[in-house]
Amino acid sequence: MKQTQSPSAFKGSIKMSRIYAAVSNKGGAGKTTLVTLAAGEYALRNERVLLIDADSRQNLSGWWRLCHNKQNVPDNIEVTTASTSRTLETAIERFATSFDLIVIDAPGVDSSLQTSIIRASELVISPIQPAIKEIEAAGQAIAMVNEINDEAGTQIQHLNVRTRVTIPGRNLEAYRYIRPFVAGLQQAAYRTALLDTELFERNIYRAIQNGLGTLQMQDLTDSVRKARAEVQALVNEIESKRSIHLKGIAA
């Protein structure tokens, strides 16, 4: 099997950052929430994390400014912006050896910048809320990643995570459609996977976007404990899937 290297591969003796991207063609799909939740968990595990806000909505940058204003700046996390493919490339080149992980909040529209982000990443994750438009947007992201892999001979991994899940919402037709939708794409030879871990609709996830720092900085109430366990499971599953994927590439 042809072996390929991601942009985060080792170059000589220099360790390069892993690069992940949150991609959905639906604005408000929950990319920024996903990015900040995961970043906090990686940072707690003593990884240096750079977040790149490439979405014109600038929700990630707004969160970061509020964190500074309220003196809730998390350790091991930095945020920068990229509005073009050139500024994205510059940021990655500048910081690739300074951080363990770079996570990009991609624009919520199909664009040349979004394509550049996918090409630069080794792993793309798409949030899927239980609604038809969000499911369709995830399908578009899956198609884009697979098209880029086919054209460039790369092995960019794609994962899907269900977000804003509620107990009553699990009875919705849209929610029940997500798993067979992803399975159908897999049967059609699209390389993607649906994570078992789900992110529930939680007040704390909304609250931290108002400059409270990361989830991991909050007082350990019962609700925060449940949220922390959920995000820990998410990061564990992402890294497990990544490890399996890399072993498959090397085989």
TrEMBL record:
Q: Which domain of life is it from?
A: Bacteria
- Give the coiled coil ranges: 217-244
**UniProtKB keywords:** Coiled coil
Q: Which residues cross the membrane?
A: none
Q: Pfam families under this entry?
A: VirC1 (PF07015)
Which InterPro entries does this entry report, sorted A to Z? DNA_Partitioning_ATPase, P-loop_NTPase, VirC1
Q: Which residues form the signal peptide?
A: none
Q: Is Coiled coil among the key words of this record?
A: yes
What name does this protein carry?
Chromosome partitioning protein
